[in-house]
Predict the structure.
Amino acid sequence: MGNFEEDYQRSLQDPDGFWGDAAAEISWSKPWDKVLNDSNPPFYKWFDGAELNTCYNCLDRHVEDGRGDQDALIYDSPMTGQVKKYTYSELTDLVARFAGGLADIGVSKGDRVIIYMPMVPEAAIAMLACARLGAIHSVVFGGFAPKELATRIDDSKPVCIIAGSCGLEPGRIVEYKPLLDEAIELSTHKPSSCVVLQRPECVGSMIEGRDHDWEELVSKSAPADCVPVAATDPLYILYTSGTTGIPKGVVRDNGGHAVALKWSMKYVYGIDPGEVFWAASDVGWVVGHSYIVYAPLLHGCTTIMFEGKPVGTPDAGTFWRVIQDHKVKALFTAPTAFRAIKQQDPKAELIKDYDLSNFVTLFLAGERADPDTIIWAQESLKVPVIDHWWQTETGWAIGANCIGYGMKPVKLGSPTLPVPGYDIRIIDEEDASTEMKTGEIGVIAVKLPLPPGTLPTLWHNDDGFIKSYLSEVPGYYKTGDAGYIDEDGYLFIMARTDDIINVAGHRLSTGGMEEVLAGHRDVAECAVIGIQDKLKGQAPLGFVVLNAGVNRDYEDVRKELVGLVREKIGPVAAFKMALVVDRLPKTRSGKILRGVMRKIADGEEYNAPATIDDPAILTEITTVLKDAGLPTG
């Protein structure tokens, strides 16, 4: 690999050469016929004709290369008070034995397996065991409602479901087994078997003939060998919410995924084999797939599985404790986690209690990282804070400050530059054939073909793949995000395309207004939505959560916020209303439910998504809006 600029250009002009070189880092049981098979667009195939096994590349090869005694996985659970470490040799053996148990109950290459687990080591073991057998796993966030789980059962038609008996939340136990049983009852497709990991905090009831106890299954199974699969065979299906309410099954292939993720560890994150990488996410989300389980293990790193929260388990210093105890070099988490920490500990006083001398970089992704949060993290941690941008569909970064090439200057509000492999264009929303000028906001699209590791299609839904992502801007993947590219080529993600509001004919980004509100000294986090306005078409409405300990007249805060937006963006924003709330409605992965809030404010019917963290927050939001004189239905 050369310097960043050379590699970026080569990745677009000679993708076969660029990704062919990257693929030398992966062990293949059969070489490819062609790096990129583009004979049937838009259904591109990476490493067509090749065979490999992803589990072998994550585990066995490192044992063979002398890493057997290195820690592969560290489980740190403030929920149970446990810390467990697994070397590459130990993890390989556990995965091989569990894969043997799955094979004994009829799981084989090409079969689908749903995994419905909390943040425990067995979740990663289950994923890797499926990969070992060539089975296709579909992880569903633990505790998901039975109806939502049932739709995923009917779509993927699993032969087996692997579940934990329960998950642990601060102050409560969430029983998974009754939810699983109800989901199977609701679904048309019935899996032939279930494997249940019985946790001591809650033992689930078992159905004879269908359910198998994890420990009993493993105790009588022989280790299974790795099964070679085609590079183009699916490794997993990960469901993402569709606009119609019907989940979309994002497919991830084996070959391109392994190549891209291994490459990203060095070049995007600047991590070397043997170093400790922590993605503070959940295996139910794409970050958990890519950067808790697969990428760190493909690269020979030590990865951390954390069962806890950024605050409340036990306090806002728990992240610093994990970084200290396990000598974490880089942390990857969502901005919402840092806003929660900042809200509880605005002066970052807890950091001084811990030794963070091994900590080098903080990476943020999952939603827009407001400059105020980035500045707070930089000043508190004294390390670079790197915003980067990607999606469930892409599986790894689209835009990033690629640390492995040497850090570029940081521009607040920008994930820096397009990552090698991604040819990003800003397209006119009104005219899909026109590109926007430098600095103008438009639809962010990526020229096809997408690089390795991105979705080749949706599960059994090629038409849905084309309709959802490719039809509006022909020849491009439409990201659904809006933004612009500045004179230095830096990318700015301003909002989802439906978060661009039209105020009296002016197209304005709610994200830009959120940046201003977040800069107020008393604001911990915020959200801006566009609501109906008879005069202007739409008007912005802000919601703010104040820092812990702030005790001021809300009307004074509101006046200051209105003044700030007027000063920074101008009177054109017509920003006149800011409401103080105790918390914002979010998904479990930390995304703020702006669309739902807008519908409540406009008095429209809405459906709370299955991924909502706490439905009770919507009632609180409705009350605040009613008190402010808005319709709310």
In short: The first strand starts at residue 34 and ends at 37.
